[in-house]
Amino acid sequence: MSDLKKYNTVTGELISYRVYGDEGGFPILVHHGLLGSSLLPDSWSQKAKEIGVRLIAIDRPGYGETTMTSGLKNIADWGAFISSLLDFLKVESFGTIAVSAGAPYAWAEAWYFKGRLRKLWLLSAVSNVSDSNILDFYPEDEKLSYERFKERNVEQIAQDYYDSLKQLQRQYVQSEGVSRRIEAALSNNCVGIAREAKMQVSPWGFGLDAISTPMEFWHSPKDDMVPIEAVEAMISGLKDAKLHLQEKKSHFPSVTTVDEVFQSIKRMF
């Protein structure tokens, strides 16, 4: 397991992160899902080392020890928030892997850093639910949930998630991977999750049509959290995007999907 590292921004906020793989290799940022953190499976670190890349997994505000900042008013602000961290790490050209709810932040980087970001790899990506045309592809109960996020404040959403996850934790006590993600969320009383939910349904501050960075998606047609139709509709408006269908019927990336992602990264060099 990689040690947790901490960086203080020029505005005095703290960002926690971990580094995996080849520390001298090409840098690839990794953005966790709604339930997650900078902790990555050992297999990811091994795969990164084998192909000579450095994975930099960043905890978003409210996750790990990253500050819940007032400077992140919308998803578009993400690039500016991590910019000094990338300078500190001497990251110039880079790639980004994003899982589920990490996807909007990957797109924000493509928009903000433009030519510096060479490619995106998106696993079970959350779609742009702030766009009513995309949200129309979701089941009615999911639409209602997103509408509630608009109406409720972060504290109320955090309490709802906390109560739900405490129950879920008992169900997944034997599943180390899921249990670890739940524990990471609960450690900060779910404020990170709540902030994410609120920002997903609010205007992002940029349009996906302004992004020209190449990207590859992996998504299951049977994803029970993000409908494949919503992802396909979103991809249709992108300039350079390719969709791979994951055979495993799950929102969580399969072992095969992760292998294919690292094979794609290897082909860059």
Question: Can you offer a commentary on this structure?
Answer:
Helices cover 40% and strands 17% of the residues. The protein is an alpha/beta fold. It has an 8-stranded mixed beta sheet with strand order 1-2-4-3-5-6-7-8, sandwiched between helices. Helix 6 crosses helix 8 (191-201). The two termini are 26 Å apart.
Features:
269 residues, alpha/beta, eight-stranded mixed β-sheet, 10 helices, globular
SSE order and pairing:
Layout: E1 5-8, E2 14-21, E3 26-31, H1 42-51, E4 53-58, H2 78-88, E5 94-99, H3 103-113, E6 117-123, H4 132-135, H5 140-151, H6 154-171, H7 176-186, H8 191-201, E7 215-219, H9 228-235, E8 241-245, H10 255-266
Helix pairs in contact: 1-10, 5-8, 6-7, 6-8
Summary of the model, kept short:
By secondary structure, the protein is α/β, with parallel strands linked by helices. The protein is built from ten helices and eight strands.
Note the main sheet.
8 strands, mixed
Low-confidence stretches: none
* Oligomeric assembly: single chain
Mean pLDDT: 92
Sequence of secondary-structure elements: EEEHEHEHEHHHHHEHEH
Using only C-alpha atoms, the radius of gyration works out to 17 Å
**Strands, total number:** 8
Q: What share of residues is helical? A: 40-55%
First and last CA, distance: 26 Å
**DSSP helix count?**
10
Strand-residue proportion:
15-25%
Shape: globular
Strand order of the largest sheet: 1-2-4-3-5-6-7-8
Structural class, please? alpha/beta
